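Entry for the shared binder. Reason: the reviewer on the internal report wants the predicted structure included alongside the sequence.
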Amino acid sequence: MNNRPTQLTIGTLAERTGLNVSAIRYYEEVGLIPEAMRRPSGHRVYTADAQELLMLIRHCRDFGFSVEETKALVGLASRDDADCVEAREIAQVHLDRVRAKLTELLALERTLSSFVTACTEQCAGGPAPKCNILQDLSLSDAARVAKSAKTQPSRCCG
């Protein structure tokens, strides 16, 4: 029986992890994974440990963690002396950013919806230069806010 550790080519590793070869090279270049061993032919080969590490990296990136946050999480995953609170803090900061972005996206959705509704109700089928959407997009931010305040229904309870 061969006691030599399993060596995986970069193509096999890419297939098993769902990453592309260039991503694996990039993660090696930025230090997220250890440098690959090289065969005499110069081809990269990795140990089976690289597969598990790349799955962690892939999932961190799928969740939108930055490369720096991913590096920190990868570092924590290999340190028995590290407290999981460190991972929670990284995740909390990222969650806060995601929630802020979600708030921005919801505001964007409301604005775009109002553009489409105004066009449908007031100008659809007319000449493009008179389209509410194009006119609203050409307004300054301050003018758009002022117009939005005028067209918002009253929230007062009568």
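Summary line for the report: The first strand starts at residue 7 and ends at 9.
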